[in-house]
Each structure stands twice: as structure tokens, then as C-alpha cells.
Design brief:
Elements (H helix, E strand, L loop, with lengths): L1 H4 L8 H8 L3 H7 L3 H22 L7 H18 L1 H8 L4 H4 L2 H5 L1 H15 L8 H22 L6 H12 L2
Helix pairs in contact: 2-3, 4-5, 4-6, 5-6, 5-9, 5-10, 5-11, 6-10, 9-10, 10-11
Length: 171
């Protein structure tokens, strides 16, 4: 994941992945048919981790926009706690090497879209499809993640970025 997260997918061979994982090359092929399948599994697992961290941070009550505010803060906190993993999920264009399968493995977007759909149903968002609003919200949060990782901390930007993401989609 570290090498994929650094954008080195095409430069990494399966033997290198096996060596870094501490297993034989044959062991990788016992579980995966290709390097793309390794990357897809890593993306799906890491996206699920980030989605879980986000969902666990949501308050049980509150408006959909409040929930999105907490969701954004949780993602930014994840960037502080696990920068490599968060970078891998949010800041790498996985479609370049996984094609359409990348979007299927990226469950986080679906969870954000569901939260935004709830806000849209309450008339709290701009009159745009929830997928577009989710992409916009996540792009702003991802910019904050990029800055938090570069600075090595998220506390300075968390509230401002989460609020900016809400402002971008609010009606």
C-alpha cells in the first residue's frame, strides 16, 4: 500500500511487493491473480477502514449537515492518525491503473453520497444530483487531507475545511 500510495504502481513489480510484505512471490499469486488485484484489495480494505472511521464519528442525532461536518472532521483526523493509508484512499487516482474497478472499490464515496442524499431530501443542499455534491464535498475534504499530511497535523485545518465543504454544497 505504501508504494501504491506514493503513486508508484507502475514502477513496482510483484517480487518487490512480496519482499516488502515478507512473503514469497508465489504466496501473492495464491491470493491474487495480478498486481492490479493486490491494489484493488488494498483500496477496498483501506476505503472500508476510512468509511468506518467516518461513520463511527457521526452523532446519532443532528441534522444531515451536522453529520457531514463530523464526517469531514473524522476523515481529516484519519489523515493525522494514518497519513499513508488516507493518502492512498483519497489522493491517488486509482482509475489510472484500475480503471472502472477503482470506483467500485471506493465505498467511501457511496457513504458520503448517502449522507448528502439525506441533506438533499431535507432541502439543505444545492439543487444538484447527490453524486455531484458528494464529489464536490469529498474534493474539498481531500484538499484538507493533502494539507494536513503535508503539515503533519490536522488540527489547524479540520474545522475550517469541514465547514468549507459544507458551505460548498449548502443551499
Amino acid at each position: 500500500m505504501r508504494l501504491f500510495g506514493e503513486g508508484q504502481f507502475h514502477a513496482v513489480a510483484v517480487p518487490t511487493l512480496a519482499r516488502l510484505a515478507g512473503v514469497s512471490e508465489g504466496s501473492i499469486y495464491n491470493y491474487f491473480s495480478s498486481k492490479e488485484d493486490v491494489a484493488l484489495a488494498a483500496l477496498a480494505e483501506s476505503s472500508t477502514w476510512l468509511e468506518s472511521a467516518m461513520l463511527e464519528a457521526l452523532p446519532p442525532t443532528g441534522s444531515p449537515l451536522d453529520q457531514l461536518l463530523f464526517a469531514g472532521a473524522a476523515i481529516l483526523q484519519a489523515a493525522s492518525d494514518e497519513p499513508e493509508r488516507t493518502r492512498f484512499v483519497l489522493l491517488i487516482d486509482h482509475a489510472l491503473y484500475l480503471g472502472d474497478r477503482a470506483r467500485d472499490a471506493f465505498g467511501l464515496l457511496g457513504a458520503v453520497e448517502l449522507l448528502i442524499s439525506s441533506a438533499s431530501a431535507s432541502g439543505l443542499t444545492r439543487d444538484l444530483p447527490p453524486r455531484i455534491l458528494a464529489d464536490l464535498w469529498l474534493a474539498i475534504i481531500s484538499s484538507g487531507v493533502r494539507q494536513a499530511i503535508a503539515d503533519g497535523r490536522s488540527d489547524d485545518v479540520t474545522a475550517q475545511v469541514a465547514e468549507a465543504a459544507i458551505a460548498a454544497i449548502r443551499a
